[in-house]
Prior knowledge:
alpha+beta; 4-stranded antiparallel beta sheet
Amino acid sequence: MSTTHLLQTTRLRLRQWQDKDLEPLAALNADEEVMEFFPATLDYKESQKAATKYKSKIEENGWGFWVSERLNDGAFMGIVGLNRVDDLPIGDYVEVGWRLAKPFWGFGYASEAASACLDFAFKELALEEVVAITTVNNVRSRAVMERLGMYDSGENFAHPKVEAASGLKEHVLYKISRDRFEQSAS
């Protein structure tokens, strides 16, 4: 078992999963607006399976997709973290990703949490590069990626787990190197 890392910024905390997180996760995953750029919403059982997977990955690696909660009131905000991507036609990378409940959109929380994840990835995990992926039409997530200093690699790909009929199959691949992150953070 690995050491479980917790990350904290001035406004939020990224922490390990607890039983109390299942209800708000299920609500998040059932929200059609939140899940607009995913192939489908998730039901309660699918959310439960996802939470178990996220918790196990953190227990195994010490990091993963953490619960994001607001410091001032402990509100469950969503999911933010890092994940090893080795099952897509883009190579073997660690990605940074986020999914926040709608009440937390537009306040810079995704950028703040993802930046803490990138800092962890480069300083603690000593990674040379981190990626982020989304469907080409997800303008909000792409804007977060750009605020983080990531760049569109131009290496679009067809996501093998997404049906073509969904209109979400084509994905963009954003990247950031350790050097670029350190330059943008200073």
